[in-house]
Amino acid sequence: MIKINNLCKTYSTGAFTVPALKGITLEIASGEFVAITGASGSGKSTMMNLLGLLDRPSKGSYLLDGIDVSHLDDNDYARLRNRKIGFVFQAFNLLPRLTALKNVELSMLYAGTKHEERRKRALEVLTLLGLEDRLHHFPNELSGGQNQRVAIARALINNPAIILADEPTGALDSQTGLEIMSIFQELNRQGTTIVLVTHELNIARHSRRILRMADGLIINDEEIARPLDAHNEIQALREKGGRA
Amino acid sequence: MNIGELILVAIESIKSNKLRSFLTTLGIVIGIAAVIAVVGIGQGGRAMLMQEMEKFGTNMFGIWVNYRDGESFRLDDLQINDITVIKENVPQVKYLAPASYGQMQLRGSKGHKSVQVIGTTADYAQVRNLETVWGRFIRDDDAAVGRRVIVLDERTALKLFGPGNPVGKKVMLMSNSAVVVGVIKSDSSMLGFNSQQIAYLPWSFLSRLNGWEVIHELQGSASSKEEVEAAMNLSKKILERRHHAPNHYYAYSLEQEMESANKVTGIMTLIIGCIAGISLLVGGIGVMNIMLVSVTERTREIGIRMALGARRKDILVQFIIESIVLCLLGGFIGIILGYGGALLVARLAKWPPLVSGWTVLLAVGFSVAVGLFFGIYPANKASKMDPIEALRRD
Question: Is the ipTM of this complex over 0.90?
Fold first, then answer.
């Protein structure tokens, strides 16, 4: 699914050049659930931008779903982002003036999907995420958890090869965060490849593989034999009587 | 993403920010309204002017004496015999009448009034397309027999005799009396040619009253529009030959007058149109201004769209279309307002409002062009954004 070889990224600001990634080699197979963790400045955001085709590496190769992206132009990048990658952001990044339904349709708009088809699929995915009665609400009329679910629906809509989630629980309270993680776990069980970027270890432990980054390098690559189960955690929280 | 979708996106974005969209497009609204109103009023006015002038018949021409510096006025520069000679020798001249002007105090049974009097002959009615309301105009035998008759215009008749047919009644003028034989329709023209009150006398009668014979001007009409030029020039030549005075006479035709009037109104419309065009330009700059603000404000939206797969071209086209739709919207409102303005002025001035199809088409085209031209820069700026930077922005 993802094959990275000696990937480097240097930022140059005037006279200074700052290396952000210093040669990363990595493979992520289809169906994996990978968490990338690390302190701020460790290079995980740069990693995320490169994986998401929002930025170009300074050196090294990147194969996404069998496609070598090194020689592609901006338009190809846009097309690949549209077809192969679903973004979920910390700040949801929904368009405030569009309803939930229209927000979900947006990715399909750039894919050139016909109107009826768009409406149908957006409805399907939103229903899947339990938002069937929130279709015509605007982002400011929805809770944080609901907004993030709309964002996940939007990320899923074009059947991407991979979901890139950048601190998806960062703006949510812990229980809502767990609800979002339980959605990711369910999606992964159904075969969706997920790459999660987070600095919270508790969140990272829901994945099945943790990549720890520091100083632009992966310093630890660890399989998680028994990931945390968000669904069970929510149950436990409820039994403790924290919230109904 | 096809154009239809992009237009929908643009409309949605315009709708979601109604007040700002309205203020943005206000410059275009005013500019287009001004252009439509000015051109509409100008064309209406011109049509009215032409219509007024055509009332006299486009075959009309006139000849007067061309006095140069140092030359003194002579009574015999134009003589009644000249008319006979011209009519006999120039077949292109259909009617030719003398005009001798003066101001006189007229007294009727109900009142008195100082009016312009014109001493002339029967042909004058044909040349000027005069319409009789009651009775008749001056006839050739009036002069021959020496009848003391007078023809009034409606307004003068009303002033002197009150409402009703005054034919047969007596008018006192300069301690003489004359019998009213006809009343002609007052000219409702706004051009001022005949707007004052007028009475017509046989030329010979006026000469007798004055004690001298004078013709200030000859007015004639050619047998056809094409022969106005020939009628004018040949008549002038005969006069020059008979009076041994080359270049002593000046001839003009209504055709010429219309042409120059046309030119003047055309230039006026063009000048005011240009000023209105400048206001459109200013409106366009306003649109660009707000579009630039809008691009900065929507940086995050641009980033999101790019992350979701919008190509730079998609962003570029989205903002250009937004700008064009905005200007078109302003254009349509402007056309309606401008047409309303032209209609209002036309009603007040009592002339037909003329907003031609091509004016509207031009206005629409101009709106699109302004939107396109002033949308390119902001749209280009939007499309050049770095998606990472854009996503990071609040």
Answer: yes
